[in-house]
């Protein structure tokens, strides 16, 4: 089944038509990447588009008081619902597919099912989760963490963006926090996402099912030194936090390689950030990930110890704060095997975080990955062919049919 269409054209054409509606939103003409930070104008435009798409399909939209949106095919309060969808927000200059692909594919999968005459025995909900990347307020998966109670409301409400605006202010209200009533209405979550590596290229398959997410987290390293004149301060007299920072970045890279883990310092802030001043303070954010929790702990401890040792030598001071943590996620093995058999798809782990990783602790959860020929993500070079995106839609439609329509 699932061969009819709502409109004329092939599924790749229907994908492209809907995709083109959102493609210009938040795109930076210079980099070609996206600046779709949560609750800023481009993301609000996409949220409006979400409501329009839901409206065109006769799907009522509900909000959970945490900034997460849900469009319902079927009765929102019936329970036993199948949740799908993803997020609209991007990292700075991120790719087009990370997030929005899961939402666009969900609407198209509903179209495919309807065109084939399927009706949901259990409701289907399409979600747009807020602040998945942590690109604005620093904590990834903020919307799903709030919904599940994995972050305290006070902490989330007080998170601030670079301009000092709090999450509560951006949301227009204090976030509502855990909603066991809403969560209890979902029987399963299936998030479709562009693959963020090259495994599917190597396997020659368009779609995979996820097995696990590596444990990962973010650590903020503040290096305090003494701001001073670049021309007059003798080298021996400096307390330069940039040196401690630079050494720490190299140490993180080395320690990660030793463990077959991943360590990245992709964000740095320098004060006063002047070419002719020894900095007074440097802050670097470490993103660390590993296949096993003990490996991750060992990696971060080693980086911390090396940074502290180096700070002594440089006459600087170090404070290290963990800003977010995501434990190892093993997706529901029975569900993953069932979907892999249904789709004849390979099963893969990933090092990337997702709202599915947060929800997996609360309900049976699965992920589908769509091939990314470059393997590049969190960059404008992220890509996926229309044919593979259509294969993703078809796979999600089969999954929703299996989980919601039988
Ligand atoms: C989110 O995409 C992450 O893995 O950092
Ligand atoms: Mn991402
Ligand atoms: Mn994502
Ligand atoms: Mn993500």
Automatic annotation (TrEMBL):
Binding residues for Zn(2+) 2, per the UniProt record? 98, 133, 378
Care to name a GO molecular-function term for this sequence? Answer: hydrolase activity, acting on carbon-nitrogen (but not peptide) bonds, in linear amidines
Q: How is the cofactor bound?
A: Binds 2 Zn(2+) ions per subunit.
Question: Where does this protein hold Zn(2+) 1?
Answer: 87, 98, 193
InterPro entries given for it? Amidase_Cbmase (IPR010158), Bact_exopeptidase_dim_dom (IPR036264), Peptidase_M20 (IPR002933)
UniProt entry tagged with the keyword Heme = no
Q: Which UniProt keywords apply?
A: Hydrolase, Metal-binding, Zinc
Name the protein family. Answer: Belongs to the peptidase M20 family.
- Please give the name of this protein: N-carbamoyl-L-amino-acid hydrolase
- Which organism does this record belong to? Micromonospora chersina
């Amino acid at each position: 089944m699932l061969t009819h269409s709502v409109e004329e054209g092939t599924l790749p054409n229907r994908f492209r038509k809907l995709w083109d509606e959102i493609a210009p939103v938040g795109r930076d003409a210079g980099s070609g990447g996206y600046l779709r930070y949560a609750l800023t104008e481009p993301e609000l435009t996409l949220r409006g588009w979400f409501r329009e798409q839901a409206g065109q399909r006769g799907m009522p939209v509900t909000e959970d008081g945490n900034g997460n949106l849900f469009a319902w095919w079927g009765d929102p309060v019936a329970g036993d619902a199948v949740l799908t969808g993803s997020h609209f927000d991007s990292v700075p200059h991120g790719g087009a597919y990370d997030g929005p692909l899961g939402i666009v594919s969900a609407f198209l999968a509903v179209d495919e099912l309807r065109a084939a005459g399927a009706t949901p025995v259990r409701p289907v909900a399409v979600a747009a989760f807020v602040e998945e990347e942590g690109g604005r307020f620093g904590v990834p998966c903020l919307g799903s963490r709030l919904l599940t109670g994995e972050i305290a409301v006070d902490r989330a409400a007080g998170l601030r963006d670079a301009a000092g605006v709090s999450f509560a202010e951006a949301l227009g209200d204090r976030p509502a926090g855990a909603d066991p009533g809403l969560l209890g209405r979902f029987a399963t979550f299936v998030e479709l996402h562009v693959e963020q590596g090259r495994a599917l290229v190597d396997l020659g398959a368009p779609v995979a099912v996820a097995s696990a997410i590596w444990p990962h987290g973010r650590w903020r390293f503040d290096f305090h030194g003494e701001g001073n004149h670049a021309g007059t301060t003798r080298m021996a007299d400096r307390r330069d936090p940039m040196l401690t920072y630079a050494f720490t970045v190299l140490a993180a890279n080395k320690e990660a390689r030793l463990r077959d883990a991943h360590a990245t310092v992709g964000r740095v802030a320098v004060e006063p950030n002047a070419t002719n001043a020894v900095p007074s303070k440097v802050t670097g954010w470490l993103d660390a990930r590993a296949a096993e929790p003990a490996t991750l702990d060992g990696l971060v401890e080693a980086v911390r110890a090396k940074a502290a040792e180096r700070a002594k030598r440089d006459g600087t001071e170090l404070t290290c704060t963990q800003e977010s943590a995501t434990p190892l996620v093993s997706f529901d093995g029975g569900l993953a095997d069932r979907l892999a058999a249904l789709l004849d798809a390979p099963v893969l782990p990933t090092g990337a975080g997702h709202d599915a990783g947060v929800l997996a602790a609360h309900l049976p959860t699965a992920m589908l990955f769509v091939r990314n020929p470059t393997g590049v993500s969190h960059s404008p070079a992220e890509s996926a062919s229309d044919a593979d995106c259509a294969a993703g839609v078809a796979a999600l439609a089969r999954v929703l049919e299996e989980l919601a329509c039988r």
